[in-house]
Fold:
Amino acid sequence: MTDQQLSAIASLITEGRSALLTRWREEVRKLPAAEDLDEPTLTNHVPHLLDELAEALRSDSQETITSALKGGLSPVHGTDRFAHSFDVEEVVAEYNILRTAIHDMVEEHGLRLQGEPFRVLNRVLDGAIGAAVKAYTARQALEVKRQREDYLAFVAHDLRAPLHSLSMATTVLELTLPDETREPETSRLLEMFRRNIENLDGLAEAVVRGSVRIETRRGRRAERRKFALFPLVEAVLHGFAPVARVGSTDLRNDVPEGLEVEADALLLSRIFQNLVANALTHAQGAQVTVGAIERTEESMVECWVHDTGAGIPQKIVEQMFEASSTSEPESHSGLGLAIVRRFVEAHGGEVTVESEEKRGSTFRFTLPRQSALRGRRRGRRQPEL
Structure:
């Protein structure tokens, strides 16, 4: 009788697979992470899992069940669900919803899931849950590790701008204090100051060079608020003033004083810092201008950093915003511009570059009036910036 039950339930699952999937999808759609998924992504490997279950019921073999699960798609399902911002609890819930749907369908057809059929069902679904959760947690651990490496690389890169400013300030002090009038103690302090700055800069560069590549992902969270843009740009340019003076570079703030933006002030400040630092590196003796304009019809604010420096070779322009371990000035790329793209995309905007050799470069980025991510669930696992 048990063999007949197993065979009958297996046939019911095979013949009623479409109805089972419909019932399952209706319930899974109630999970927050599944609300906006398209049907193929939502359904994923569940049809194959039902086939595995039907085969396991027909064979009633522990070896066959174990083999089917090892060759199944549950690990891929776990990884995919992580990529679509599911919680691990939601991953488990999907399988339990399927378990309930099978129970209900079997009972509706006058059969009962008890004894061996019940044990086979639980072995298959519990095994699938274990495989999916194992893959999910492995991907989660990898993501945490990558986020830590990204954060360390960001901090190391951001340290280099103030260190460069301090180095320039030390140079200014050395030039304005002639050797013949300088106290010995002053000379020792300046030398110690310069040596420590160089050591710190070397450590920061080593971290940047040794960091893992940065994955530029859309959907990073930005804490947006409304504020005037002119003072923020003025503060950024003020911080670069010593470097600009040493390089005989003219810094200009052409942002309209009444212009307001809705953005994350910290991320926006770092965007401008990276773009201005990049411009100063390649535009010594030239002019660097920061500007912005409100494009009401497009519901956005467009910002730019323009320099009249050496410009960028066209063969480099297309790869400018890719993360790179290099920090050589002539590369016109590296971690700084990858950070810029990442933070601009966090606001739902885009960044572009226009350049002509010997004529200068203009980096532009947009800030949409309304966050593309507002009210959405994406990005909940992403780190604070």
Confidence is low (pLDDT under 50) at residues 212-220, 325-333, 371-385. Strands lie at 225-228, 250-254, 260-263, 287-295, 300-307, 351-356, 360-368.
